Structure formats: structure tokens, C-alpha cells
């Protein structure tokens, strides 16, 4: 069963169109920065021949281990250079059935990390000095969460609301920036069995986990303007998304029709109400 399916095809595992061996998805000549990342995501970029993969995290031991595994698999003399960089990065997800009774400091910390921490990293990434002759634009892909769609979301209120807050902020920032400057996309990677899930004693056979994380690399290969400021799910078929963005005929293409008629489509907003422009609000 598919949960939220924008496209007619719903993927739970990788497929040929997002294969790292596909020439159009080559990351040759690019540097990929992964915050809070590990070996599995870095591996997908290495398979696509990225020139450099920089993995940033808070635990130096795990970072060094992840880079060592990548070097062992792809070779130290291969086309991809792997760099581990320790930073003050944290994953904080306070939970509880009653948010109003929660420790205020824990709630504040959730927003400090999921909003301000992500904002600081995003601002420095976009504003970094770059080679003016470089032909490759910046791509900023924010890993969001399905809990942003969950009403109600028992015990997840601090996490889902702080993640959604940054997703909303990033959507507005994307509208401010030219896609020639930076293309910004929010992305739900699917239900992936992670180290955090294991440490939380979540059984691996509890649910059917996804294997869709390779779409992340594909998002950095879309032409400028396609998917810009959208929130997408890894499960959605990349061919259908491309077709919707490219086609000039809105008929029989619900995605294209919605994009043309609703400026807030696939962005954070108020369910049940259409988005309006600031100019329209002033002229009402």
C-alpha cells in the first residue's frame, strides 16, 4: 500500500532510472557535502563518480569508520575523494504525549537544532565563495520527514513541528533565490532502517522498510528550475516528475495542472486553502 503517491508508480526500492551507473546522473566534477551523514549515502555518490564526498558529523570515530569503508570499497586511488569533517551537529528528537508539559529546554533545543542549525548550515553553504566560471549550480537538498504530513502525530509533536518549520522557511527562501544561484528541494527519503532506529530498539521486521535513498543523488541532477522549492518523496517515480515538469500540455497531467494553478503546490501551507500572493492579499 502506498501512503502519499503523487505519481502513478510508487517505488520502495531502486530502479533503472535512478541507477548510479546512468550517464545522465554522473556526479563527475562535483563536490557533495552530506551533513549528519554516513557511508550509505556517500556510497551512492561514489558510484556516480563524484569528485569529492565530504561527510560531516559530530562523532569522529564513526566518521572515520564511514570514510574508511568507502575508501575500501571504491579504492583510495579512485575518482572520488572522501573527506570526514567533525562538527557540532546533533540529532535531537524529544518526544512525549503532552507537549505543554514537556521540559521547555528540550522543546527549545529541538527548534535550535532542526531550524537554526539547519539554517546556519544552509546560509553558509549558499553564501560560500565560489568560482565565478563554474558551470555547475549549487543544489541544496533538505532531508525532511513524513511526520510533517501526520495529523495527529502522537509523541512526535516537537520533532515534526520543528522539521516542518524549517521546511516552510526553506520553501520561502527558495522563492527568493534564482535557480541559477541555487536549487532548493525538500526530500522525504522514505522509511529507512537506520542506526537511530536500531538504538531505539525498533525491530527490523516491524514494518516493510524502504530502499529508496538513491533518489537523493538523482535530485542533484535535475535541470535548473525542475523541482525547485518542491517537497518530494523518494517513492515518487522520477520519470513522471520529469514529464510533468517538461510537458507543455496540462491536459491529463494533474501535476502540471496543479503547478500552473497553485503556486503553493508541494509546499508547506494551510490544508484546504489555496495559496495567495502577497500582492493579491493587499489588493483584496
Automatic annotation (TrEMBL):
Entry-linked PANTHER family: ALCOHOL DEHYDROGENASE (PTHR42901:SF1)
Family: Belongs to the short-chain dehydrogenases/reductases (SDR) family.
Highest classification ranks of the organism: Eukaryota, Fungi, Dikarya, Basidiomycota, Agaricomycotina
GO molecular function terms listed in the Swiss-Prot or TrEMBL record: oxidoreductase activity
This protein's UniProt keywords: Oxidoreductase
The protein's name: NAD(P)-binding protein
InterPro entries tied to this protein: NAD(P)-bd_dom_sf (IPR036291), SDR_fam (IPR002347)
Pfam families for this protein: adh_short
Coiled coil stretches, renumbered: none
SUPFAM superfamilies found in the cross-reference section: NAD(P)-binding Rossmann-fold domains
Amino acid at each position: 500500500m502506498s501512503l502519499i503517491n503523487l505519481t502513478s508508480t510508487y517505488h520502495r526500492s531502486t530502479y533503472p532510472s535512478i541507477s548510479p551507473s546512468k550517464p545522465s546522473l554522473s556526479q563527475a566534477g562535483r563536490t557533495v557535502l552530506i551533513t549528519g551523514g554516513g557511508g550509505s549515502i556517500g556510497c551512492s555518490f561514489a558510484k556516480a563518480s563524484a569528485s569529492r564526498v565530504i561527510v560531516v558529523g559530530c562523532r569522529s570515530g564513526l566518521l572515520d569508520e564511514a570514510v574508511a569503508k568507502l575508501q575500501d570499497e571504491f579504492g583510495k586511488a579512485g575518482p572520488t575523494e572522501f573527506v570526514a569533517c567533525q562538527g557540532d551537529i546533533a540529532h535531537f528528537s524529544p518526544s512525549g504525549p503532552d507537549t505543554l508539559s514537556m521540559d521547555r529546554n528540550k522543546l527549545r533545543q529541538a527548534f535550535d537544532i532542526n531550524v537554526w542549525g539547519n539554517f546556519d548550515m544552509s546560509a553558509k553553504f549558499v553564501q560560500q565563495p565560489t568560482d565565478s566560471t563554474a558551470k555547475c549550480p549549487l543544489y541544496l537538498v533538505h532531508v525532511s520527514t513524513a511526520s510533517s504530513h501526520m495529523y495527529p502525530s502522537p509523541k512526535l509533536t516537537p520533532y515534526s513541528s520543528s522539521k516542518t518549520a524549517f521546511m516552510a522557511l526553506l520553501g520561502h527562501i527558495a522563492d527568493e533565490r534564482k535557480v541559477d544561484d541555487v536549487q532548493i528541494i525538500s526530500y522525504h527519503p522514505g522509511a529507512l532502517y537506520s542506526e537511530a532506529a536500531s538504538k531505539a530498539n525498533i525491530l527490523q521486521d516491524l514494518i516493510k522498510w524502504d530502499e529508496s535513498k538513491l533518489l537523493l543523488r538523482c535530485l542533484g541532477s535535475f535541470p535548473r528550475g525542475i523541482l525547485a522549492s518542491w517537497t518530494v518523496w523518494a517513492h515518487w517515480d522520477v520519470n513522471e516528475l520529469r514529464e510533468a515538469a517538461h510537458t507543455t500540455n496540462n491536459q491529463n497531467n494533474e501535476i502540471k495542472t496543479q503547478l500552473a494553478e497553485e503556486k503553493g503546490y508541494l509546499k508547506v501551507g494551510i490544508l484546504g486553502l489555496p495559496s495567495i500572493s502577497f500582492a493579491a492579499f493587499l489588493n483584496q
